[in-house]
């Protein structure tokens, strides 16, 4: 009887462990199934041109999602990233086409592309810093704080040109401000945006897994009070995380403007949803404390394949929005199921260790 109970217990544990393994690898499984489905639904889906187009889109979602991953791991959310994409593009486009006018002196300054890029990244960092300050110093919930800055950033993007588009932002050789288009070009056949994604992913992954800062990020998401008691400067880490998210969004804004050779204030609308979906699909828990950069990149590929695949299949843009919404909800539900299963397995392991028979030692 005891042997049967032990056997059943081991079978149950094996079943739970298998289910947990499948859940952890769910993003790769979903990606493989999507690739298989769209390869049959659209004949040219697995072509080189489609792959390069996919890489271009995944780069944008992936860079945004990396910043979002850091934010979500701390237990926060950043709804402003899509608006920062639009604002960054407008800042870069405005500086290239119109320069910076000093009204007092009646002079217009034109800057080289590296200076334009640096200033644009500073704008993204400022929005991230503002998010961090509002959340940490004023105690505003991340959802509300970043929702507010989303509207502010989008409003400034509109005001920058009164809602108009900056077109043909290629610069002028005589003014020394050409070269922005390099971010939308290809190197060795690969989109520059994809190469930037790889670089940021490597740096972000190392920081998250191999440094004290990364440990602080995880500890805040796991238990903020315990992290604070153990000496972690919670407010400082949170501010830095939101700054990083803002910089990632600004990079995406620059790449987008470069690819289109134009900047529109509405660029990046709803992209925050793609970033959140990619992070959550990749295993980042909305409850905080769990997440990987590698998983997020796979999640970005899933979002990219869904988006491009549906476009190639002629699916309506409205249905695309519905499907993405369903994907986000399902990802959160599966994440919660995984957390419950992990807790159940851990509890079973503790109970088993207590009930294991101890050998009698005879003297």
From TrEMBL:
Superkingdom: Bacteria
Chief place of localization: membrane
The entry's keywords: Cell inner membrane, Cell membrane, Membrane, Transmembrane, Transmembrane helix, Transport
Residue ranges of the TM segments: 27-46, 58-77, 83-100, 107-127, 133-153, 187-208, 239-257, 278-306
Membrane topology designation: Multi-pass membrane protein
InterPro entries: ABC_transp_permease (IPR001851)
GO cellular component: plasma membrane
Subcellular location(s) of the protein: Cell membrane
A GO molecular-function descriptor: transmembrane transporter activity
Pfam families xref list: BPD_transp_2
PANTHER family (alphabetical): ABC TRANSPORTER PERMEASE PROTEIN YPHD-RELATED, ABC TRANSPORTER PERMEASE PROTEIN YPHD-RELATED-RELATED
Name under which the protein is recorded: Erythritol transport system permease protein
Species of the source: Propionispira arboris
Organism taxonomic ancestry: Bacteria, Bacillati, Bacillota, Negativicutes, Selenomonadales
């Amino acid at each position: 009887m005891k042997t049967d109970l032990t056997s059943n217990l081991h079978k149950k544990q094996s079943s739970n462990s298998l289910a947990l393994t499948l859940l952890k690898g769910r993003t790769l499984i979903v990606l493989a199934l999507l690739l298989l489905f769209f390869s049959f639904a659209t004949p040219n889906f697995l072509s080189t041109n489609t792959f390069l187009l996919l890489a271009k889109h995944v780069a944008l979602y992936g860079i945004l999602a990396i910043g979002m991953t850091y934010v979500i791991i701390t237990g926060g959310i950043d709804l402003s990233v899509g608006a920062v994409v639009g604002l960054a593009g407008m800042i870069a486009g405005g500086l290239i086409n119109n320069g910076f006018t000093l009204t007092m002196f009646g002079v217009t300054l034109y800057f080289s592309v590296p200076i334009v890029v640096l200033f644009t990244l500073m704008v993204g960092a400022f929005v991230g810093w503002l998010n961090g300050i509002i959340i940490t110093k004023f105690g505003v919930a991340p959802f509300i704080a970043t929702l507010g800055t989303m509207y502010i950033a989008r409003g400034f993007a509109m005001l920058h040109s009164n809602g108009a588009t900056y077109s043909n932002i290629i610069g002028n050789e005589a003014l020394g401000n050409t070269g922005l288009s390099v971010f939308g070009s290809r190197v060795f056949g690969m989109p520059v945006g994809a190469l930037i994604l790889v670089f940021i992913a490597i740096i972000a992954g190392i920081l998250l897994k191999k440094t004290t800062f990364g440990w602080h990020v995880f500890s805040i998401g796991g238990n903020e009070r315990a992290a604070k008691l153990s000496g972690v400067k919670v407010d400082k880490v949170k501010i830095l995380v939101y700054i990083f998210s803002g910089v990632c969004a600004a990079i995406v804004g620059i790449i987008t403007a470069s690819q289109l050779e134009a900047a529109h204030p509405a660029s990046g609308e709803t992209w925050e949803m793609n970033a959140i979906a990619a992070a959550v699909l990749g295993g980042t828990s909305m409850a905080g404390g769990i997440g990987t950069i590698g998983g997020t990149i796979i999640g970005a590929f899933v979002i990219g394949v869904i988006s491009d695949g549906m476009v190639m299949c002629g699916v309506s843009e409205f249905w695309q929005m519905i499907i993405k919404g369903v994907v986000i909800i399902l990802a959160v539900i599966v994440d919660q199921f995984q957390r419950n299963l992990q807790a159940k397995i851990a509890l079973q392991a503790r109970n088993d260790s207590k009930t294991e028979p101890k050998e009698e030692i005879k003297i």
